[in-house]
Amino acid sequence: MAIIDKAAIQALLDAYTAKILLYITSNNNKEITGAQLKEILDDSKVILEQIKDSYFNLINEPRTAVSVSFTVLDALDWDVLPAEVKAALDELAQRLRDLENASNVFIYTIELYANTDSTVSNIFPLYGKVLLFGSDNKSSKVTDVSYETSTDGGDTWTPRVDFTALDTYLTSATTPTSFIFVRAIFTFLGGFVGEQAITLNYTQS
To answer: CA within 20 to 30 Å of 60's CA: 50, 88, 178, 199, which one?
Structure first.
């Protein structure tokens, strides 16, 4: 028998139930023919076989991480897109092992804050090879953040349109002995008055 989904199984059951009710309610002479009984039994056999083929059995087909599908929400989070839970767990385990085995890896935080009176943030100095990870962590009061970088102590600034652009620049421009300044320009939610902060996470070598 073919494997069918829940909707198709429900349709079979609905048709089966309707047929039984029809035979019972139309049985004015209190007679149900042998042909009708055979038809009902044949329908029962078909439905049961469809259910058997369409659903797994916990004894014969135990549900494992291999057979559980996995839907990726953000493809950029994965080196290889997992189709099953097993593949997702394997990649996460590999990443954890890499972190545990990595030497001299520390996580640092950049804190940038500004307010509605002065939307340009404080200046944060970075020294050495800098690799950003994750994303910029901002509240709902901040609708957008762009960045600027400087290599001359803050005399001149170069725009970096967003987190991705800043990450790309720092990855290529920083070295073990480089000195770069970073600041952010906040766009606040209309009507909001006050100060907000964002954080960026990075590793340094």
So the answer is: 88
